[in-house]
Structure formats: structure tokens, C-alpha cells
């Protein structure tokens, strides 16, 4: 039993007979959510740079991360609606409404056009609100419906689906924009988003528990020491892994990579590298544990970012090398590390209110990502790409020992929770 989870309570026991079906249907939803993220935070900055907008204005697109950073505020209400005192969960209805709003928002963005930055950011923020609400239900559904031995598959669905969706949103979308036009590309993404939600709607049913006695709340989550330390772990890890990545697309554009080529690189390359490294990360977590995989990803990310900084300062580096470094950083090492990080999130979440606990940890990820995305745009505009990538590499090196200490501290806390329960059982 995972530390911090009361024995014999909560709905985690339902629906465990078909974990493969649960993982696959959730994977479709995670792909759809990441199409939105890839389009907003990778493709849109590249399109804007291709059309001449300055980097400091492009960095403002990260304001659309705000709902992902603040979704913990409405997660308790969503979780209480999703898990009524009696009867089946309402995950399906949340997914339907959120998916329809997201698809409609993408169609509206297509009509507005990319260069009208303020209304585009407003609509993308509304889409992010709908998608983040769906994500609360998805994460809670995953933790409660998958038994602990299958958590690794759930993490693979999350991270692998995220990179597959990001590859579509940042890769296929850019190719469609370059070959067709902006409005056709966004409407195509809206249709794909709806299609990806169909398997979950068909297969998400399950037996309803007779009674749910626990009242999900933010206070219960923040009252747990494991969650508080998990928030610190998430913040530090995201600083080290993500802060420079929003500038990789603009950097490649300024290095002479064409928009259509960048779309192909993000799409095919990101999908292959990210998905493969997500699977590798899941396997390594089972063998080495999440803490060791997180440290490995941090060290490798520091080396890759340092190489990108050197390339930016030196100039004249061959485009294939720049592309390889960008793919390794944004797809390979991110996937490897975040499988381990999300494994920690899932282990720390109480299945009686998993939507709140997992959401709270992810919100720290999103909040730090938003600050880093805006800050990276400013640093790159005024100090250059080399300073941006170099600072990120330094953060990764500094973060490694801190992450190691926090992981050991969490492991000790989990052991202290398990021993009294074991003694009581004896």
C-alpha cells in the first residue's frame, strides 16, 4: 500500500479488472490535452516568431498556463462533484463538457488568427481552464481505478500521451499551418480532440461504491507532510527541467530552420524520441526507483542545455546538431524525468481525493513553468539565447542534490507511515 493512503477506504478497488483498457482510454485523453499544450506553448511561439513578433511578446503566451497553475482552487469542487456520496463517479460528464468547450475554443482561435495576440491568449486561457478541469477528473480516475502495481502504466500513459499529443500539437499543426492555413489547422486539431475522447466515453463505466465517507478537501491535502514536501520537489525539479524549453522553437527559427521543417521535427522527432524515452523511463523507474531516474535526467539535461548555450554563444553550429540537442532536451530527457516525477506524484496522492492531491502537485509544475516561460522570453530578448540556456543548465546542476535530499526525506516519511500500520495489522 502506498504511503499516506488509508487502508480499506476509497474507491480505488473498483474497475481494476481491465487495467489495459483504463490506461488506453486515459491515454487518449492525455494525448488530447497535450495537443492543446503543444499548440499553445510550442507551436504558437514558433508561428509568432515566423511572423516577426518580438521574443518578449511571445513569452506572454505563457499566461495561458495560469489555469493549469491555479486549478487546485476548483479541484475540490470538481472532485466532490465527480465523487458524490453515493452512486457512480461523474468523470464521464466532466470529460464531455470540457472536451466540447476546448474544441469550440480552438475553432474560435482559428477565426481570430495568430497575430491578434491578446484575444488569442484570452481564448487559449479559456481552453486551458476547460482542459485543466478535465485533467483533474482524469488524474483522479487514474489513481482510483488503477491498483498500485499498475501505476507505472498510468505514468507511461500520462507522459507518453503527453509527448505524443505535444508532437501532434507542435509538429503536425505547424505542418498544416505551413501547407494550408491557420484556421484549417486549428479546426483539424479541434476535430482530433473530440475523436480522442470517444474511447473514454465508451469504456469509462464501473461499479459504484455503496458509500463514500471521505469529503475531499484542499485542507486534507495540505495537512499531509508528504504533499508539502512534494510541492517543494515539483517546484525545484521543474525549474531545472523546463525553464529554457519555451525558447527552443524560436532559437531554431532564428538559426535558420524553416517553420514547416520545425513542424516535422517537433512532430515526428518529438513523437518518436519522447514516446520511446517515456517507455524507457517507466522501465527504469521499476528497476532503479523514481529518485535515481530523476537525478539521471537532471544531469543529462544540464549537459544538453550547456551544449545549447555554447552553440548559441558560438554561432555557426550545423542545424542537424542544434535539432538533435533540442530534441534530446525537450522530448527525450523531459519524458525520462517526468515519468519519474509523476510516479512520485501518484505515490503521494490519497485515492479518496486523488484529483485534488495530484492536481495540487501538478499546479506547482504549471505555476513554475509559467514564470519560467515568461522569464525565459525576457532573458533571451535582452541577454541572448546563450544566457537563457546557460542559466537553465546551472539550475539543473544546483537542483540535483536538493532533489536527492527531498526524495530521501519523502521515503523516510513514507516508511514512518507504513510501520505503524504494519504493526497495527500484526
Oligomer: single chain
Number of strands: 0
Helicity level: over 70%
Distance between the termini: 15 Å
* Main sheet attributes: strand count, strand direction, barrel closure: none
Structural class: mainly alpha
Range of strand content: under 5%
Q: Any idea how many domains?
A: 1
CATH class categorisation:
Mainly Alpha
The appropriate CATH architecture is Up-down Bundle
Morphology call: globular
CATH superfamily, called what? MFS general substrate transporter like domains
pLDDT averaged over residues: 80
CATH topology: Growth Hormone, Chain: A
**How many whole angstroms does the radius of gyration measure?**
21 Å
Membrane topology: Multi-pass membrane protein
Protein name: MFS transporter (Putative signal transducer)
Main location: membrane
GO molecular function: transmembrane transporter activity
Q: How is the secondary structure organized here?
A:
Elements lengths: L18 H32 L4 H4 L7 H5 L4 H8 L8 H22 L4 H29 L5 H29 L2 H22 L14 H5 L2 H18 L5 H7 L4 H30 L1 H25 L4 H30 L5 H30 L1 H41 L1
Helix pairs in contact: 1-6, 1-7, 1-8, 1-11, 4-6, 4-15, 5-6, 5-8, 6-15, 7-8, 7-12, 7-14, 10-14, 10-15, 10-16, 12-13, 12-14, 13-14, 13-16, 15-16
Organism: Microvirga subterranea
Family: Belongs to the major facilitator superfamily.
GO molecular function: transmembrane transporter activity
Amino acid at each position: 500500500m502506498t504511503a499516506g493512503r488509508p487502508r480499506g477506504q476509497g474507491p480505488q478497488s473498483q474497475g481494476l479488472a481491465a487495467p489495459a483498457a483504463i490506461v488506453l482510454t486515459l491515454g487518449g485523453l492525455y494525448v488530447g490535452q497535450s495537443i492543446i499544450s503543444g499548440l499553445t506553448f510550442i507551436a504558437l511561439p514558433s508561428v509568432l516568431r515566423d511572423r516577426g513578433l518580438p521574443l518578449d511578446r511571445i513569452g506572454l503566451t505563457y499566461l495561458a498556463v495560469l489555469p493549469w497553475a491555479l486549478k487546485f482552487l476548483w479541484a475540490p469542487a470538481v472532485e466532490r462533484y465527480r465523487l458524490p456520496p453515493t452512486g457512480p463517479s461523474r468523470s464521464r460528464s466532466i470529460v464531455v463538457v470540457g472536451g466540447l468547450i476546448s474544441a469550440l475554443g480552438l475553432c474560435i482561435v482559428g477565426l481570430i488568427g495568430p497575430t491578434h495576440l491578446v484575444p488569442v491568449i484570452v481564448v487559449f486561457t479559456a481552453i486551458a481552464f476547460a482542459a485543466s478541469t478535465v485533467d483533474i477528473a482524469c488524474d483522479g480516475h487514474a489513481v482510483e481505478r488503477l491498483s498500485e502495481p499498475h501505476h507505472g502504466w498510468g505514468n507511461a500513459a500520462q507522459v507518453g500521451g503527453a509527448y505524443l499529443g505535444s508532437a501532434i500539437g507542435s509538429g503536425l499543426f505547424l505542418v498544416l499551418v505551413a501547407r494550408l492555413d491557420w484556421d484549417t489547422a486549428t479546426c483539424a486539431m479541434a476535430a482530433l480532440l473530440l475523436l480522442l475522447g470517444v474511447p473514454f466515453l465508451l469504456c469509462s463505466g464501473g461499479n459504484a461504491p455503496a458509500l463514500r465517507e471521505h469529503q475531499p478537501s484542499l485542507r486534507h491535502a495540505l495537512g499531509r507532510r508528504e504533499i508539502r514536501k512534494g510541492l517543494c520537489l515539483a517546484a525545484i525539479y521543474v525549474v531545472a527541467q523546463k525553464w529554457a524549453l519555451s525558447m527552443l522553437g524560436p532559437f531554431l527559427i532564428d538559426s535558420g530552420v524553416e517553420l514547416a521543417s520545425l513542424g516535422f521535427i517537433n512532430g515526428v522527432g518529438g513523437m518518436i524520441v519522447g514516446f520511446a524515452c517515456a517507455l524507457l523511463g517507466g522501465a527504469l523507474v521499476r528497476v532503479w526507483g523514481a529518485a535515481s531516474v530523476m537525478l539521471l535526467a537532471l544531469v543529462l539535461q544540464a549537459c544538453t542545455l550547456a551544449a545549447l548555450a555554447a552553440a548559441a554563444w558560438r554561432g555557426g553550429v550545423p542545424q542537424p546538431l542544434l535539432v538533435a540537442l533540442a530534441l534530446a532536451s525537450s522530448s527525450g530527457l523531459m519524458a525520462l524525468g517526468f515519468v519519474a516525477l509523476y510516479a512520485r506524484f501518484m505515490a503521494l496522492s490519497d485515492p479518496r481525493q486523488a484529483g485534488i492531491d495530484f492536481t495540487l502537485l501538478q499546479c506547482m509544475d504549471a505555476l513554475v513553468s509559467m514564470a519560467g516561460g515568461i522569464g525565459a522570453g525576457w532573458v533571451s530578448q535582452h541577454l541572448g539565447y546563450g544566457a537563457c540556456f546557460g542559466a537553465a543548465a546551472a539550475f539543473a546542476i544546483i537542483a540535483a542534490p536538493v532533489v536527492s535530499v527531498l526524495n530521501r526525506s519523502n521515503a523516510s516519511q513514507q516508511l514512518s507511515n507504513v510501520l505503524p500500520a504494519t504493526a497495527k495489522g500484526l
